[in-house]
Amino acid sequence: xxxxxxxxxxxxxxxxxxxxxxxxxxxxxxxSAVMLAVALGSLMYLGRDIVDFLGQFTxxxxxxxxxxxxxxxxxxxxxxxxxxxxxxxxxPMLVILFIAAIAxxxxxxxxxxxxxxxxxxxxxxxxASGVQRMFSLxxxxxxxxxxxxxxxxxxxxxxxLYFEMETILGLSAMSTIEVASYLLDTALWTSMKIAIxxxxxxxxxxxxxxxxxxxxxxxxxxxxxxxxxxxxxxPQVVARRRQVARQLAMSRMASDIPKADVVVTNPTxxxxxxxxxxxxxxxxxxxxxxxxxxxxxxxxxxxxxNIPVVERKELARxxxxxxxxxxxxxxxxxxxxxxxxxxxxxxxxxxLPTMADLEQADRDRGRAA
Length: 369
Hints:
Radius of gyration: 40 Å
Distance between the termini: 70 Å
Order of helices and strands: HHHHHHHHHEEEHEHHH
Structural class: mainly alpha
Largest sheet: 4 strands, mixed
């Protein structure tokens, strides 16, 4: 398998780049179908109120007798009143359509800010690119989708009217109002069924758009390597940096560990070097810690410098997870660390400072500060 074959799924970085360019799966047919269904549903729910209002509005307007010499103010007030009455009925439906349009777009693409789309794209008027787009797989699918929509609309309409055939043939026996009401209901319900069918078809189209987007974003192994190199740097440079960092850490340990008072171990996996000067520090400080080979290095340096190595499994695990190099040990570990230090002092024949000595040291530090 060649490295140039697109066999790898797109990385998040590639997806983010495509989104920044506006390359997202989006179906305009889904937007149109949902908007049609919402509009029909709103019309079916609010239609009676709208029809009643229009009838009353027409009667009021036809029954309004203007003054003999209508002024401009009268005409303006009359027009403003008419617009206000009309808006009170139409605004709820328009608000529903507005919210639906925003919602269906947000569901597909989310919030996008693409200022680069405001510029002029010369490739759009390139004849070669235009011919390529005309005979692309995307346009073929659009053609098939358009044919499918025509077929589905025709089938849904024919089936609906076929089941209404008996009622349609009996319309001659109905009154004019009954015929008008029946035709309106039939037209709305037939349109709603067509809209639902179009929504289902548009969902399939959106699924195809998602699949097509995933195929377009597929990456080759070489592209994966290049992306990692561009984001993290050359692997050789990164390895060199890590080597230098390890060397610096080792050299720092070589100078810090001889100053430690004790090394707590686990006994082979972990090692934590602690230093405590009761006259200078308020709590023991971690001067070095490590696991694996680093822990072995710490123990070796401790033995070379006659630093006591004490095995305390639970304490070593806790200090390795909770304490940071150069910081005091956590307060809830004071008692365990104090016990280790007391044991080390006894081994070395040192005498622990008294409370008076510590208080005097605190006073001295306060005066120095």
